[in-house]
Amino acid sequence: MEMENISLIKMLEESFRKNWNIPALSNYKDITLHYRDVARRIEKLHIIFGICGLHKGEKVAICSRNQANWGVVFLASLTYGAVPVPILHEFKSGNVHHIVNHSESRILFVGDMIWEDLSKDEMPGLEAIIQITDFSLIYANREKIVETREHLNEMFGKKYPKSFLPENVSYCREESCDDVAMINYTSGTSGFSKGVMIPFRALISNVLFAQEKYPHIGSGSNSVSMLPTAHMYGLMFEFLFEICVGAHVHFLTRVPSPKIIMEAFANIKPDIIISVPLIIEKIYKNKLQPILNKTSMKVLLKLPVIDKKVEEKIRGELVKAFGGKFFEVIIGGAAFNREADEFFHKIGFPYTIGYGMTECAPIISYAPYNEYKLFSCGKAAPRMEIRIDSPDPERVAGEIQVRGANVMLGYFHNPEATAASFTEDGWMKTGDMGILDSDGFLFIKGRCKSMILGPSGQNIYPEEIESMINNMPYVVESLVIEDNGKLVALIYPDIDAAMADGIGSNEVDRKMEENIELVNKDLPNYAKISSVKIMPEEFEKTPKRSIKRYMYNS
Length: 554
Hints:
The chain has 554 residues and is α/β, with parallel strands linked by helices. It has 18 helices and 27 strands. The chain folds into three domains: 180 residues, Rossmann fold; 172 residues, Rossmann fold, CATH 3.40.50; 100 residues, GMP Synthetase, Chain A, domain 3, CATH 3.30.300. The strands form eight sheets. It has a five-stranded mixed sheet with strand order 4-3-5-6-7, sandwiched between helices. A four-stranded mixed sheet has the order 2-1-11-10, with helices on both faces. The chain has a four-stranded antiparallel sheet with strand order 18-19-21-22. Helix 2 crosses helix 3, helix 2 packs across helix 7 and helix 8 packs across helix 9. The radius of gyration is 25 Å and the shape is globular.
């Protein structure tokens, strides 16, 4: 493996020294930390870790919203030789307690709002609990830790009497490729969080992937961090890769609405944009669909000469809306709406769809926007291989299986789940179904678990039908389930939009029936929807915004 001689810790050291005087981490519209400030804070946390008696390989849990200090704590843990355990701040308190205990974390860094729902008595293994925004102590099991925190600046001054300089950045840790670098608990659409042990080789391989694909991103480039940093996709491509190359990460510290995101893009003008489909789909639905649905626009788009001009104008406006400086928008984390996919492809908007999972830290497949094939999610990423468990991988969908540098070591303290995730010949089972075309492009059909068997043994992928329903008027989201051998569509309607168009709530049901009639016209007989159920509120979701299917399948 070509990565044998590459050290992530050395990459970080070099980045701090080289980029000492430029901005590293900002809370949007608030504080900015330069690389020197981050290095200084890391050093102070190392002093605290030492007093807490933290040893190499022991765990540090981090549970807070995205913010500059989240990045500081993650990097401090990694460079000390500890194992960071990021926890999604949206998790319920019982789940946070469970993860802290299950991971055997010794220190917990926590946001103030989150701490209100937690209890130290539920986490008896902790040496210290530290408030992440100002590093004040919430709890310490020894007086020595309290004293250290009180005199931290003094101790730091004694350790570096002249001043803390680039050459003082030296992290003695020597990591080997297969050491556990971090543990990331999955957000899980099936109910239970599992601790994914991610080795250094997977982090290095993902950072190298981003460097290979985006060589123009380096010192002084900008990125906007809007996905949860506790989730592997946001952590890797909106934060860790950027810090390794000297870029400036801007954290959107609030829950990012499309309005806030677009405003941040306009101000920051990011060089790379990572997104989940939900954000792009909202922009498509709210900003573009109303324009495209106008009769005059429909006529213009049918005229061969004019349609190109109109498409160029729409593309130009979109590029401007995203800040105008980015190379491409990478979409991942869930299936992308087919209608939006088709439209962005048609107007030549620079976007691509990748595929990955926590267990691969995260990247599995990718193709740059100028090579992207419609409805696919790219080809196997560097240092990764993909195979389809099917007698005819190009035509008959089978489970997507992968192997390579990005693959996890297994699940922490869960040998049964680990064994069940690998084939006898060492490939990791993704749990997703797909086909691989003759050019090596991967097309995902859906989750193995959500696949429904038709009346004569046909494979029905509810995600594909849901994508069609979600394009219908006044639909926010939908779920297709099986009930006594028939397919039922659960639909959460957009009552506000319907009422704005003069459609009363009692008429919405009729509209949904009409929608399903239209969808059924395009479906084979075995996959037709037999009935509709209107949902009074939106579906329960994981922090990654995937619907928790298991809650509705019954």
